[in-house]
Structures are given as C-alpha cells and as structure tokens.
Amino acid sequence: MSMSLATILLFLGLLVGADRSRPEHPQDGPDVDLRVRIDQDRVEIQARLNLAFADEFIERSRTGLDFVAEAELPAFGNALEALLRRQVRVKVDGRERPADRVEFEEEPWEPDDAEFFPRMGLRAVQRFRLVLSHRLETAPAQVAVYWGLYPPDRALEGIVDQRLALKAEWSAGREIKIVDLRAEEPEYVWHAPAGTFARPIPVRADETRPGGPGPLVARVIAILALAACALAVLASAGSVGRPRALTTALAASLGLGLLLPLAGRAAATLDDAEARAVLAERLRGVYDAFSYERESDVYDALATSVSDRLIGPIYDQVFQQLVMREEGGAVARVSAFGPLESTVIERDDEAGRIVLDARWQVAGEVYHWGHTHARVSRHHARYVLGRGPRGWLIDAVEALAQERLEPIPGSNDR
Assign residue 118 a region: left if phi > 0, alpha if psi is -120 to 50, beta otherwise? Predict the structure, then answer.
C-alpha cells in the first residue's frame, strides 16, 4: 500500500477545505492573532496584528494613511515593541519577567486584498508579527500573562460601545487550549499539571499480548523458576555429585530462561477483540504524537504506534504540513478521537500480520485571528497491524473515505 501525502493526511484526519475566495482573514477592523507558548526554559508570546489594530494605540507618524512604507518599518517596529513591553506582562511563579528578546517582522500581504475589507482597506490587510521571549532558569509551576490591548470593536460601532474581546491559543507541554481575554479580565493564570513537560518514552520491549509481561520480565521469571528447580536437584544430590549437579542445573536454568520467552514471543498473536483494541490505542497514539513540539519527541511518540517505515513519511509530510499551516495563521488541533467500529478482515498469525477495516471520528478546532472554528470528521480506512521488535504497530494504511460533518453548534465562527 502506498503512503501518498493525501493518504497520510486522510489517515490523520487533517484534510480541511480552504476558502480561497478571499484571503485568510483578520476581520475588517482592528484584529490580533495571539498565541502563548510555555516551555521548560522559555515563555513566548506571539502577536500577529494588522495595521488597524496598531493604529488604535500608536500615534500615526507615517507619510501615508493607509499603510506603513518600507523605509518606515524600523521606526514602526520600535514603536510596536515599546507598546507591547508596556502593555504585556508575564509573571512566572510570582516574579515578573520582562522579555529578554523581541522579534519584529512585516508579514507578506497583497494590496489587491483590500477589496475584501471595505471599511479598513489596506489597514486591515497589512500585518505584522512580534514575538516576546522570556527566558527561564527552571520549569515553571505557574505562569500569569497580562494583555492590556483591547481596541474598540469597530463591528459594533454606532450600536454599542464595547471593547474587542480576544481569544488566545495557550500551549504548554502537550496541553493546548483556547483562553478568553477581555478588558474586564485581562490576565490569565496557568498552573502546571503534573507531568506537563514530560518527554515520551519509546516502547522498546516486545509486547506479546495486551497487558502481558515484556521479554525481560518473562526471562527473569523463567530463570528464577528454573533456578528453584536447580536448587531442588542440588538438594537431592549427594556430596560427591553436588558440584557437577550445580553446574549443570544452573546452565540449564540460564539457557532455558533465555530461550523460553523467545519461543513464546514467536507464537504470540492477538484475537479479534485484542486487535481492535490495539488498533484504537495505536491510532490515538498517532494523534497524541503531534501534540509534542520537539522533533525528537514526535519521532519517539510515533515509534510507539507505527512501524519504522511509516515514521519518516508521517513526520516529514504531515508534521511539516502542520507547521506550514500554522505559519499561515490557521492550525488544526485534535481535541477528541473516538473509534466507531473496526473488523478483522484478514490475518496471518504465523507472520504476525492482521488487516482491519476501521471507521473513526475526529473532533478538533482550527484557531486563527482570535477565534476558533470547530470541526468534526469521520474516516474510513484499512490498516495492517504488524508484529515486530516493539510489539504490534500500524505497519500500513489505505485511506478509503472521509466525511466532513457540520460544525459543532456553538462554535465561535466569526
């Protein structure tokens, strides 16, 4: 079975349709895409904002009213940095931490896109990206972020005087969530759950059946059992034959202790119910793997769910696709995974190969520019579970169908 990019994306349930009739939005007014990333040694705040947002807080000193010219970008960037240093505060374990590094850049934009923003024109289209980085000496137990920039909600102008409410993507370790920020509640405090920054531990021992002992444990049990038999033989031997009996019994114990688990491992298999349970667990593991940030962590996590020949294609094609999508401003995060049904359709117990037809459902959120879109999709694929040195893993996949369901009621599609 070939593993094309489309197949792998279907496998992960991450193919989403894109509306290409208009550019990736901010709204037609002041807008900001806010993301907070917490790691063991750093807190980073990324703000992508349009010129209309900046104009609410920075005095206009540029030559043109509608956009910032290239020659004016350095001074404009300095003004934005000063603004964020005043209005964004980070406290780690009760101690305020000023940013030790700030990055600024103008994002690519197309003047022709102004037609999609009749109220703000180019000021909605021209966008900038700033990253405030706060270095830490130790992993944080508590992080509080204060965001003090809430422009008037121009969409409600003339109807009600209201400040723009924001949503921010907050990620720490493998935890990813959307938090609400508003002028009345401008600060969010995060407490680190146990194991937030734990790294994945690859499965290295062979697993013969779900819940069964690994080979090392099996060898120890076998050796101890046979050693007990050896001692019994030794106790029954006379004083003259005791040394020879001891040597023979211990050698037999060690040899059989090493060989018996190997023989059991070669004959190991899964019944249909166990195969369905293992597939569901491995699929869940694949989704979980992409919640890690470090490349090495993603590889280690994938190694617990898929065979070696699939780790590279899944990482290289799918993870990089996620990164590019995130750079473009929209990122899909899986929030729930649920197997619907699976059936064993073919098996070769001697070769350690089981083929299953499976259906499952994925729920997630796409976050960009301060709001979220909820998404649910159903998938149908054929999987091969193969038995190898790391146990039963997904060894091949053939995507058969995908169905995009209606958005979840109450999702914040703006």
Answer: alpha
Domain edges within the chain: 5-16+269-404, 32-191, 215-266
Which contacts (CB < 8 Å, 24+ apart) does range 336-339 have? 336/362, 336/363, 336/364, 337/283, 337/284, 337/287, 337/361, 337/362, 337/363, 338/362, 339/276, 339/279, 339/280, 339/283
Task: Give the β-pairing of 42-50 and 127-135.
Answer: antiparallel
Q: Is 176 helix (H, G, I), strand (E, B) or coil?
A: strand
* pLDDT one-digit tens code per residue, 62-73: 888 899 999 999
Question: Residue 109 has which token pair?
Answer: 């934009």
How large is the angle between the packed helices 242-266 and 215-236, nearest 10 degrees?
150
Token pair of 352 as six digits: 């350690």
Write out the CATH class of domain 5-16+269-404.
alpha beta
pTM recorded for the entire structure: 0.63
End-to-end CA gap in the chain: 41
**Residues whose CB is less than 8 angstroms from the CB of residue 376 and which lie 6 or more positions away in sequence, other chains included:** 361, 362, 363, 364, 404, 405, 406, 407, 408
Residue type, 385: L
In 55-183 the beta strands, taken as DSSP E runs, fall at 88-92, 95-96, 101-106, 127-135, 142-147, 166-172, 175-181
Residue 202, number of CB atoms within 10 A of its CB? 12
Residues in the chain, total: 414
**Confidence class for position 90, pLDDT limits 50, 70, 90:** very high
